[in-house]
Amino acid sequence: EIQLVESGGGLVQAGGSLTLSCAASGFPFSASTMSWIRQTPGKKYEWLSSIESDGRITVAAAVKGRFIIARNNAESTLSLQLNGLKTEDTSIYYCREDTRSGMRGQGTQVTVST
Fold first, then answer.
1. What whole-number distance in Å separates Cα of residue 66 and Cα of residue 79?
2. What is the predicted pLDDT for the residue at 41?
3. Which residues pair with 46 in a beta bridge?
4. Are strands 10-13 and 67-72 parallel, antiparallel or unpaired?
5. In angstroms, what is the C-alpha Rg of the chain?
6. 49-70, pLDDT tens digit by residue?
7. Residue 38 Ramachandran class (φ > 0 left, ψ -120 to 50 alpha, else beta)
């Protein structure tokens, strides 16, 4: 059973930083492309960044230069470093397994205050 558990969200002031983590299990993590997405106030999902099994990274233009994705295959964890946070980054952030299932975890809330 694929399981994805996000953590690390919280309340942060604008301009601050957070690092989100995703603990993965139930599938060959190192062979999977993994992504971070977030849910907008209108409930649509916005893709943020992906990292392939070979380490190649793609980043959405909206967060390029501010958000950094990384993976630790030995620990089956995915991370997203959020820098220079803006109030519009307030959202629920999810990790997603892209190769086998398209599943996402339960999400972690990030709230950016002024």
1. 14
2. 78
3. 38
4. unpaired
5. 13
6. 999 999 999 999 999 999 999 9
7. beta
pLDDT of residue 89: 96
pLDDT, one tens digit per residue, over 8-18 is: 999 999 999 99
Torsion, CA 87, CA 90, CA 95, CA 101, rounded to 10: -120
Token code pair at residue 65: 């230069």
How many other C-beta atoms are found inside a 10 Å radius of the C-beta of residue 82?
Answer: 24
Q: How far apart, in Å, are the Cα atoms of 52 and each of 2, 67, 73?
A: 18, 16, 11
Among residues 19, 52, 56, 50, which one has the least CA distance to residue 36?
A: 50
Residue 96 and residue 104 in contact, taking contact as beta carbons nearer than 8 Å:
yes
